[in-house]
Specification:
single chain; alpha+beta; seven-stranded mixed beta sheet; four-stranded antiparallel beta sheet; 4 helices; 22% helix; disordered C terminus
Length: 198
């Protein structure tokens, strides 16, 4: 007989997590390609001599940096410390080739600040807690564009006169974007080409 019980059971939680992850691997290519993926904690702290005056607490999961906490002691505000922390996070995300940074803030907190730092609101939740609005924000660090490969062969690009191709894709070939190769990274995998802005 099927029944539901309430409680905290670590062994049951582990089983549910394992089963769900196995299903996710079947359905998501990125998860399948990163079977040992785990959440990595990565935080930044600001000190005045030996005194902690602020910090950004976050973690990396699924190629995104999640900023969970950002706080600067009140008497140190207005000195650009929070901005420096965000810049450090974005630099770290770029160095690690992460897709972006995401966070959340209430309407009485720092939405305007995050927007000034290049974040945009992608969703919001009202009455959490009642009488407030919770905003979800993101900042894209690394864009990815996908192009369908039209034909696998050595030959000419259909849109240009370049010859040194191991594949042809639409609308660009590898040599068509040579002039911006210092800002893009092209990866050929399976049946697609990903052009990623670095």
């Amino acid at each position: 007989m099927i029944h539901i019980s309430y409680g905290n059971d670590n062994s049951s939680e582990d089983v549910i997590h394992t089963r769900l992850h196995e299903e996710n691997e079947k359905r998501c290519e990125w998860i399948r390609e990163h079977p040992m993926h785990q959440v990595d904690c990565c935080s930044f702290y600001t000190f005045d001599d030996d005194s902690l005056i602020g910090g950004a607490v976050g973690s990396v999961a699924y190629n995104w940096y999640t900023l969970e906490l950002l706080h600067v002691q009140e008497k140190y505000r207005g000195m650009g410390i929070a901005s420096q922390l965000i810049e450090k996070i974005c630099s770290y995300a770029k160095e690690k080739r992460l897709t972006g940074v995401k966070t959340e803030t209430w309407n009485f907190q720092a939405r305007t600040f995050y927007e000034k730092m290049g974040f945009s609101v992608y969703s919001e939740l009202k009455d959490c807690p009642p009488g407030t609005e919770l905003y979800f924000l993101k900042k894209i660090i690394r864009q990815q564009f996908q192009f369908k490969i039209l034909k696998l062969q050595e030959g000419r690009c259909r849109r240009c006169t370049h010859k040194k191709l191991s594949f042809i894709m639409h609308p660009l070939c590898t040599l068509c974007v040579t002039f911006i190769m210092h800002t893009v990274h092209i990866v050929s995998k399976y049946n697609r080409v990903i052009v990623s802005i670095l």
